[in-house]
TrEMBL record:
UniProt-listed Gene3D superfamilies: 3.40.630.30
Species this protein is from: Paenibacillus selenitireducens
Lineage of source species: Bacteria, Bacillati, Bacillota, Bacilli, Bacillales
Keywords: Acyltransferase, Transferase
Protein name in UniProt: GNAT family N-acetyltransferase
N-acetyltransferase domain: residues covered: 1-160, 155-290
Length: 290
């Protein structure tokens, strides 16, 4: 079966991917991680999506690549349950790895739901190495924990604009160990996306942290959250997160909030739990040198 390599995805292709994901999620009892914002805002300059259709025109296999830094590409995908054990996912992975080599990515991170036995078996057989896990956490507005915010914190959370580029570049470098080049490209991509929103937290007019937000199905997904290194461990992270939740509920009537956190990041996990977040799922990451 032919692999369709895509630089952008049509509305019909996006719908096909959603329907295939629904089938796989239902039958496997999991929630596949597919970055829908990335899928809807492909640049059209690079191949990041690989699709396989059957003779009837139904999507039966899909793999997507997500690139957030020059040192690696993240990959997730699926095959319709009726078409598994036919080597289709292997074909999708081989096509993606060829693309990664052409773009000179040193490594690839495969995203596998923690409960996917078949996914883990494939990745082990493919020679990957387990590297880390992330919790998927959710918070409903009704369950938000009351978090005390000091009256002395004259904090404001506002939408970032291009004039904040240097601040955001610096925060990403400190918070996520990104190179300046990767951080700058990431900031520019976020500003260029119509579906991604970046917020800056300021204390007495000085930036102390940042967060990114996307919206889907009435929920807000929070990502890229970091606080100035000198202010960590002093309650600012909790205050910023709670402030953003309150602001989004007040201004956009958002009542469900989601985020991811590394399983081993106990400090961040504690902050999120104190704001009402609870673990609902987990994804494992496996690395392969290209």
């Amino acid at each position: 079966m032919k692999i369709h390599r895509k630089q952008t995805l049509s509305e019909q292709e996006l719908q096909d991917i959603r329907e295939l994901a629904d089938i796989c999620n239902l039958l496997d009892g999991i929630q596949l991680k597919l970055n829908w914002v990335s899928l809807q805002t492909r640049s059209g300059e690079e191949t990041n999506d690989f699709l396989i259709y059957n003779d009837a025109g139904d999507l039966i296999g899909y793999l997507g690549m997500y690139v957030f830094r020059s040192s690696e590409a993240e990959i997730s995908g699926m095959v319709h349950p009726r078409y598994r054990r036919q080597g289709l996912f292997r074909k999708l992975v081989d096509a993606a790895l060829t693309e990664c080599r052409q773009r000179e990515f040193p490594k690839v991170l495969f995203i596998c739901h923690h409960a996917s036995a078949s996914g883990k078996a494939f990745l082990i057989e493919a020679g990957t190495t387990y590297t880390m896990s992330e919790h998927w956490m959710r918070c409903e507005w009704a369950d938000v924990t009351n978090v005390e915010r000091s009256a002395a914190l004259a904090m404001e959370i506002r939408a970032a604009d291009v004039e904040d580029t240097e601040v955001l570049v610096s925060l990403n470098q400190d918070g996520f160990d990104m190179t300046e080049e990767d951080s700058r490209e990431y900031v520019e991509r976020c500003f260029g996306s119509p579906l991604e929103y970046t917020f800056i937290a300021e204390l007495e007019g000085q930036p102390i942290g940042k967060l990114g937000v996307t919206y889907e199905d009435g929920a807000a997904f929070i990502y890229g959250f970091c606080v100035q290194p000198t202010l960590r461990g002093k309650g600012y992270g909790r205050a910023i997160l709670r402030g953003l939740i309150e602001q989004l509920n007040r201004e956009r009537s958002i009542s469900r909030f989601e985020l991811e956190v590394a399983v081993k990041n106990e400090r961040a996990l504690g902050i999120y739990e104190s704001c009402g977040f609870r673990v609902v799922s987990a994804n494992d990451y496996y690395v392969l040198t290209v």
